[in-house]
Amino acid sequence: MTTATAPAVDSEKTRRRATRPGRAAGTGVSRPSFVWAAPAAVFFGLFAIVPLLLVVVLSFTSWNGLGSPEFAGLDNWSKLLDDPVMLKSLWLSLLLTVLGVVVQTPISILLGVWAAGHQRNRAVLSAIYFVPLLLSITAVSVLWRAVLDPNFGVPSQARWLFGDGNLFGVQAGAIGVLVFVSTWQFTPLHTLIYQGAARAIPQVLYQAAQIDGAGRFRQFFHITLPQLRNSIVTSMVLMVVGGLTTFDTVLILTQGGPGTDTTNSAYYMYQKAFKSFEFGTASAIALLLVLVASFVSLVMVRLTGYDKMRSTMEGV
């Protein structure tokens, strides 16, 4: 009798051991504890959550960087609502973000799908194309500032194309330069996202489409794009957050000029903090940017259904 019931007892022990907290049900494999995530959680808390809370507090104070902050209530926020430069900078930030998404998304998708091929020449060209991604924003901005200099750069040698050559002297030209430089540097990042996503698409889908007589264009619009939906949303969220917080490029290329025509919210925050020494107002601008970026990102995620994380590989 003892030997007959031993397998049942062992099976019951195994089931209990597998269903203990910290183990994956039915596998007996231990799950990583929270201790493994503690260093990242502490780092995020110290360098993200704590500074954000300090910014929230400072946004309700008046402080010039010296002495102790004085509580100012909603004065900083009321000033921002009545500040025409602030409203203009917020609109400009949204404009730069929209232009960045509209320009970079189709280029990134096409290059990413093309780079997903396995030919040797594509690998070499892709490696060269990703070089701008390795450079810092400051280095890229300094480079293009020299290249587009109205006195010594390319525009001065091609006035038939650039007119008087001063692209930074008019709002349209300055905005065009900002969009172009951002596209030149950050398109490789989004191309890399689409390249990885395109390579993950099952080839059986394309094989079935070929049997049905679908050409490359129909395969691209009816298979590739639908399969890249989640990657497109991810890429666009990154573009939105990056576009709303663009600072380095504006500081080096245009310095908010001509006048305040390219003064976006991030650069205006810098001016308020480190030129006017109005740290309370600058904190309010920073908090406003966080709220706007979070709101836009959440709306995008909700409208696209990305929050439900549905699989795009139907029937596979």
UniProtKB/TrEMBL annotation:
It is a multi-pass membrane protein. It holds the Pfam family BPD_transp_1. The keyword Phosphoprotein does not apply. The chain crosses the membrane at residues 34-60, 90-115, 127-147, 167-186, 232-253, 279-301. Keywords: Cell membrane, Membrane, Transmembrane, Transmembrane helix, Transport. SUPFAM superfamilies: MetI-like. It is found in: Cell membrane. Its main location: membrane. The keyword Secreted does not apply. Residues 90-300 form the ABC transmembrane type-1 domain. Residues 1-28 are annotated as: Disordered. Belongs to the binding-protein-dependent transport system permease family. This is Sugar ABC transporter permease. It comes from Streptomyces exfoliatus.
